[in-house]
Amino acid sequence: xxxxxxxxxxxxxxxxxxxxxxxxxxxxxxxxxxxxxxxxxxxxxxxxxxxxxxxxxxxxxxxxxxxxxxxxxxxxxxxxxxxxxxxxxxxxxxxxxxxxxxxxxxxxxxxxxxxxxxxxxxxxxxxxxxxxxxxxxxxxxxxxxxxxxxxxxxxxxxxxxxxxxxxxxxxxxxxxxxxxxxxxxxxxxxxxxxxxxxxxxxxxxxxxxxxxxxxxxxxxxxxxxxxxxxxxxxxxxxxxxxxxxxxxxxxxxxxxxxxxxxxxxxxxxxxxxxxxxxxxxxxxxxxxxxxxxxxxxxxxxxxxxxxxxxxxxxxxxxxxxxxxxxxxxxxxxxxxxxxxxxx
Length: 343
What we know:
Blueprint: H1 2-14, H2 17-39, H3 45-71, H4 85-93, H5 97-108, E1 124-125, E2 130-131, E3 137-139, E4 144-146, E5 151-153, E6 158-160, H6 165-195, H7 202-234, H8 238-242, E7 246-247, E8 250-251, H9 260-268, H10 312-317, E9 331-334, E10 339-342
Antiparallel strand pairs: 1-2, 3-4, 5-6, 7-8, 9-10
Helix pairs in contact: 2-3, 2-7, 3-6, 4-5, 6-7
């Protein structure tokens, strides 16, 4: 037992190594750009001020989004998706798989669950003892089920999912902006040091290496960012791109695709003024997502919606979320805030 705890502790410590590497590279780039290039190499005061002003804006937004990606905890299913004590006892005491499946189906009738496992059964996590909401997956690194899990990213030492996917995308975009700005402004001095127009000194090494590092990171980030832009436009997670979500009628890669505009709004919100600021504006609560096909709303698990409606008082206090098809409304409970949503 003590050995297992020691191994987990070592794993947690080592998991911060990628973050420390990124932080070290960024701090060095700050020193190389601000001190070695701007303060020690540039002679034009106006150029110094302009370079430093724009650089600190890029650096600030990059640091902010990276910090938010790291410290924002991954959201997990709320208590409504956990088995009650009696249901858990009934499920564990039952040895017949078919009967266990029926027990989960019965419990899921009270919840907004549309997706199934590959076998057609209700998705259930034995380790967390929860019925998995749509797009929820168990992360073996974080040892928890994560709402709308995209992937576990070692560079932020966190699971990227519903709670921080916007921050992760902004982190990628501001990282690219940071790199391309450095490369663009350093380029002329890189050439001057390279051909010998500027005297050799400590700044030469920093400027030359800064150019190579900025371009290297930009190219790698460009591919990753482009891939995630495609995922957002299709309303898929990385996991769903590799394995299509399974609905009552079978697998469907486009099951959550409700159009590019609404797909973007699910991640960034409706207020475009907040799209590029790392504050949470994603729509919904992570437990339910609008579906592409109206026929999916006929999921037999949700045939009796009164089963998972709590009270008239809660519905009177609630907020409502507009579905992709205004003619179809399904009332679901905002399981995080105790408000009602119409999805």
